[in-house]
Amino acid sequence: MDTTTLTPAAQVIVSLIPIVGIAFGAVIIFFALLWKHRETKQRILAGTYTSHSYNWKPFFLLTGLILIGVGLVLSTMFLFMKGFSFMLLGGLIPLVIGLALIIFYKANDFKTQPDDKE
Q1: Among candidates 111, 104, 117, which has minimal Cα distance to 63?
Q2: I want to staple 98 with a disulfide (CB 3.0 to 4.6 A). Which of 40, 51, 67, 85 is the partner?
Q3: Inter-axis angle of helices 56-82 and 89-107, to 10 degrees?
Q4: How many CB atoms are located within 10 Å of the residue 68 CB?
Q5: How far from 105 is each of 8, 90, 94, 102, CA to CA, in Å?
Q6: What is the pLDDT of residues 8-61, one digit of tens each?
Q7: What is the pTM of this model?
């Protein structure tokens, strides 16, 4: 979008849209977390709360594979577009994070807790 053709008032409005969106998003996330906290607190007081156990092993594997795929595609695209430049970091960063998650997945044995039902 060419901002030289916009009036100053329109430029202000266009620049405020992301700020307002982020603020509304933060408020919504805050109240969602507050709701969840109060719900959990009431369940504990009523004696109906059961803790949840998460299986982190597939999460690390899936997230690592997705980030490696995205990183490879972005790195290849940026390499063909601009060659070796700072733009290449846009693909190398998710690639390296994905590799780190796969290494973490392989390095840990993820022993289950005695109360886990797997």
Answers
A1: 104
A2: 67
A3: 150
A4: 18
A5: 52, 24, 16, 5
A6: 888 899 999 999 999 999 999 999 999 999 999 999 999 999 988 888 889 999
A7: 0.58
